[in-house]
Structure formats: structure tokens, C-alpha cells
Amino acid sequence: MNELDVLRVFCGPDGRHGNALGVVRDGRTYPDEASRQALAAELGFSETVFVDDPERGVVDIHTPGLRLPFAGHPLVGAAWLLDLEVVNPPAGEVWARHDGEFTWITARPEWAPPRRLQRYASAAEVDALPAPPPGDGWLYAWAWEDEAAGRVRARAFPRRDDGIVEDEATGAAALLLTAELGRALNITQGRGSQILTAPGPGATIEIGGRVRFARSAGFPQSAGFA
């Protein structure tokens, strides 16, 4: 049976939470898009990464419902797991660095899929939000916890076409919010995940977070595996 590495990406300061990520280290075992999409749907993670070239960092990213050219937490997780300085998703070359506690990637806002970024008056309002109806559109709800310090409270609600009601930590949405606000952010998302961001040279954005190894497991398994 093939092996799957499961990571938690964008963990909180206590090492808890973070968004679950499946990494198939040998992408050759699922050689075409249909088989990869089927496995991603079976596993049920918000994203699954297939590694096609571990030395050059060539990766392929799938949600349970579609293939993505770019996604934040899969690339941070892959860079950490494979100890890479460059990751190559379909969107383009993504530089990575590791500072001991955090793994960082540098990306461009135009690579991120569209998100509706909606500001609320307080973190309490964000905490109280119900999930939007299925198919209502991708919502990234946020509020300042401490504007002077750049601290943000956020929650992310996908369209739910692929069964994901709330995304625990979304680097792509954090990327777009950072580009919109034009400043470094310290984002607490979901149940307690932490995403750090900072504008970089040439309109790039750096995204960083903690990664923890959860487990290795055989697959395929049912969607309840996530």
C-alpha cells in the first residue's frame, strides 16, 4: 500500500490546530489528473499535494473538487516536509525559507484564486458567523483584533461544493488580504491557527507559519480519514 504523509500547517503558538494537508511523496503512483482528483476527494482534506519531482519541488495541488495552480498551506507544508528552497506549482516558481520556528514562501497575489474579503466590526462578530449556504461563494471574513499591531481575526468559508464547510487556515486568502491592506499581518484563523504575512519586493507577499508532522498512513481510505 502507498504511504501518505499528513501535516498540520499554520499551527498556533502551542503547536495545536493548523490545516490538515495530505502529501503523496511519489506522485507517479497517481499519474493522471483523474486519479489524483479521485484520491483527493476520497481523502477529504482541503488540499492534497502530489510530489512529481522532490528535488526540483514540482508539485500538483488538488482540493476534493478541483486542481489548483497555487495554494498557500500546501506549499508551506511541502517546502517544510521536503526541506526545499524552491517549490514549483503550476502557477510559477515559489521561493521558500526556514527560520527554525516558521516556514515561509514568497508568492504573488495574482496567483491566488478569487476570494470575497469581508471586514466585520469586531472579532466577536467574526466568531459568531454561521457558515454561508452551500454554493454561496468563497467568503474570507475578518476583523481587526489590534489594528496598530496588525493582528487580525479571520474565518474562511469555501463554496462547499466539495464538502469543506470551513477552511481552518488559508494562505491564499491571507495573501490577498495582505495585498489589499498593504501591511504585515498576524492572522488568527479558524479554531486557533496562525498565519504571518509581510509585503515583499516587486509586489510579492511572504507567508509564514508553523508546520507539524501528524502521521504517515496507508491510503486510499474513506473521506472520514481527514
TrEMBL record:
Superkingdom per UniProt: Bacteria
GO molecular function annotations of the record: catalytic activity
Coiled coil spans: none
Pfam families (UniProt xref): PhzC-PhzF
InterPro entries in the record: Phenazine_PhzF-like
Gene3D superfamilies per record: Diaminopimelate Epimerase, Chain A, domain 1
Annotated catalytic residues: 47
Protein name: Phenazine biosynthesis protein PhzC/PhzF
Organism field: Streptomyces agglomeratus
